[in-house]
Amino acid sequence: MKYINKIVVIAIILMIPAMSFGQYCNYFHEEYCSPSENKSFKLNGQSKSALFSKGQTSELSILVYRKLDYRISLCMDDNLGSQIAFKIYEIKKVKVEKVIEHKEMEEEMGPCSECDGTGSLDGEDCWECEGAGEKSTGNEKEVITKETKIIVEKQKQLLYDNSEDGYANEIEFTVEKSRRLVIEISIPGDGGGSTTKKRSKLLKSSDMGCVGILVEHMTTPISGFKGTGF
Length: 230
What we know:
Blueprint lengths: L1 H24 L2 H5 L9 E2 L4 E6 L3 E8 L3 E9 L8 E27 L8 E2 L2 E2 L8 E28 L8 E6 L3 E8 L21 E12 L11
Antiparallel strand pairs: 1-11, 2-11, 3-10, 4-9, 4-11, 5-8, 5-10, 6-7
C-alpha cells in the first residue's frame, strides 16, 4: 500500500509542471502574438494557445466566412526554438468510388449421386438432391461478394505551407467562400526519439513551451469605384 501511495505522489509531482505550463499557456496568444497594425482587424474568438513539446505536431480547426479578411499569426516560447512550421488546409467533401467487400458463411453444396445428379426423377423433383442436382456436404464456406459504392469523404487540400514562404509566422487572406480550415502546427525537434537511442519517458521543462495562434478578422474593403445608381 505504501508503495502504491509513493507512485501516486510521484505521478502528481510530475504532473504539476505540465499543469502549470498549461495554465500559463491559456492566453499566450493575447500576450505574445503581435496583432496587426491595421486597427480594422479585430480579435477572432477562434484564437487559441496550447502547450507543445519539441517535435510535436497538432491541428486547430477554424471556420472562415465570406466577405471577411483574415490574419493568422503565430508565436511560441523561445525554448521551443526560433522557427515554427505551419500549414493551412481546407476540408473538402469529395465523392469517392469504393469497392466494399461483404463476407458471409454459406452452406457448402456438393454433387448428388442419387437421381444421377439431375435433381429430378421420372419428371418429379428428387428430394434427396433438393431439386437442384446438389445436396449439402454438412460444411460451410466463406463467400465474398463485392459492391461498388459512391461515398462522400472529408479530405484535406493544402492551401499554404510556410516552409515555402521563408517560414513566415503570419499570413493575411481574403475569403470569397465560407469554408472550414485546418491549421497544422509542427515544432522542430526530437519528437519520438530514434531507433538507436530511446527518448527519456520524462519530458523536461526545456522541451516544453507555449504556442499561440492569433486569428484576426475584418470586413473585406470594397475596391474600385462604387456603383453610380445607373
